[in-house]
Structure formats: structure tokens, C-alpha cells
Amino acid sequence: MVAHSGLITVMTRAARKAAPRLRRDFGEVEQLQVSRKGPADFVSMADKRAEQTIVEELRNARPDWGLLLEEGGAIEGNPAKPRWIVDPLDGTTNFLHGVPHFSISIAVEDKKPGGATEISHGLVYHPLTDDSYWAEKGRGAWLQDARLRVSARRDLNETLIGTGIPHCGRGDAARWAKIYAAVGPQVSGVRRFGSAALDLAWVAAGRMDGFWEDDLDIWDTAAGVLLVREAGGFVTDYRGSDRSFERREYIAGSSAIHSKLQKLVAGVVR
Questions:
Q1: Contact indicator for 187, 237 with CB cutoff of 8 Å
Q2: How far is it, in rounded angstroms, from Cα 178 to Cα 195?
Q3: With the C-alpha atoms ordered 205, 206, 208, 211, is the resulting torsion angle positive or negative?
Q4: Nearest to 243 by CA among 225, 268, 270
Q5: Phi and psi of 235, rounded to 5°?
């Protein structure tokens, strides 16, 4: 067993406590597909129930910490203490359609001197497979007890790249299309799986060689960004600077692939 901090234990326990109900709800979605109303309201309730379960566990463990929640917004805590960042169901559209690819994402945002913040702990948990991707700043990234490293591929034409596609009025579809036109012909394949948290975890695990997406919220990405960095990779915004959370832009990959991918994207968006 790999020794990890008590915080990772707390985060894993919270995710695993929410998982059985999410699995049951996911099983129900298929039955709801035939109803006229559809499963959208049901999935929204599943999202909120999962968040409530996770919040209860986290608050029991650290009652004075604040939280930033996808569904519930910001809950203030002791301003001198860290806060939790929680996405209880990343991949809602997949869940809604009975596609078995979604995740729970939990991160810890620490305060630094001078008012800055950093992500110090991250967990991306797949409720259907019990895969637990976790990272602690300075201690590496892991899948269960196996150390994660980003892909060693160096040539773009051998790479598999993940992305997210703008939908339902979110994001800039024209800009995405231009980026895809620049990236697609240079790589072995582009995939859109539908859970940014899992996408980043898969980059950390070397399953995908790189990733780009924008218009993402911090609860989608906080844990995944730490996973990639602790697995030896790089994450920046489209301009190559360390302002991804602020600009809501993400390019991730190994050193070699990140550099090449970032140049392609920057050539389109500048």
C-alpha cells in the first residue's frame, strides 16, 4: 500500500460514499430514456444528492473549511484555512444518456503567503470502475497504488489528444473548429470523452498524450491539473502561461507534447 495523507483518505471516503447511489441512479437512467419528460430532472437530482453526501463527509472531517461546489456555489469557512473544490458529477451529459464515463472530482485549495492559492491535493474518482486517481503536491500522482507518469511519446503524429467540444451555447464553436483544423491533421487521433476531470487523469496516466479545452470551471479541472503536473506533465493556458484557472483555458501533456500542442493552439487563437 502507498502511504498517503489523511486528506486523500477523507476525499476518497467521501467519493466512495456518494458512489453507490450514483451507480443506482445511473442504472435507473436507462429506464427513464423512454419517458416523455426524459431523465434530465432525475440526473439533476442525482448530481445534487451526490454533492450533499460528499459535503457532509468533508464537513465532518474539516468543519471549519470552506467549499466551492458546482451545484451549491461557495460556502464560506475560516478564511485562514484551505477550502474544498467539488464537482460531484463531471460528465453529466454522459450520465444522462447512459454512457458509462463520468467522475467525481475533489480538490484542496491551499492559501499561500501574499494571498495566492494553489491546489495541494486532488482526487478524480470513477464510480463505475472504482478507479481512484489521486495526487498530492510534491508526492506524485497515483492510480490506486500505481505511480502515474505522462506519456513518453514525442512525435505529434503518434499522439492521441483529448478535447471538449462547445455545446448548447457554451464556448466558442468557431474558435474550437479552427484549433481542431490546426491540431487534427498533425496527430494520430482526437477524442471527446465528455468528462474533463477524467480526461486530465488519463493524460496523467499516459492513456492520452495531450488535452486542450476552454470554458471549463475550476471544479472541472483542479484535481486533474494537479494529477498531470505530479505525473511529470505540464498544464498552461493557450498562451503558455500559468493562468489556466483564471483564463479557463487548458493545454496539458508531457513536456514535448505540451510544447508542440501549445504552439499549434497559440497560432490559431492569438
A1: no
A2: 22
A3: positive
A4: 225
A5: -135, 125
Q: Are 107 and 123 in contact (CB under 8 A)?
A: yes
Rounded alpha-carbon distances, angstroms, from residue 242 to 76, 245, 254: 26, 8, 15
Threshold 0.90, pTM exceeds: yes
Q: Which amino acid belongs to residue 76?
A: E
For residue 90, how many other CB atoms are within 10 A of its CB? 27
Measured between its terminal Cα atoms, the distance across the chain in Å is: 47
Q: What is the CA radius of gyration of the chain?
A: 18
Whole-number Å distance between alpha carbons of 210 and 159: 8
Instruction: Record the cell numbers describing residue 116, joined without a space.
Output: 495566492
Q: Which of 245, 162, 155, 159 is nearest to 211 (CA)?
A: 162
Residue type, 39: P
- Per-residue confidence in pLDDT tens, the chain, 270 aa: 666 789 999 999 999 999 999 999 898 876 665 555 556 777 788 899 999 999 999 999 999 999 999 888 999 999 999 999 999 999 999 998 889 999 999 999 998 888 789 999 999 999 999 999 999 999 999 999 999 999 999 999 999 999 999 988 778 899 999 999 999 999 999 999 999 999 999 999 999 999 999 999 999 999 999 999 999 999 999 999 999 999 999 999 999 999 999 999 999 987
117: helix, coil or strand? strand
Strand order in the sheet with 73-75: 73-75, 66-69, 83-90, 103-111, 117-126, 131-136, 140-143, 146-147
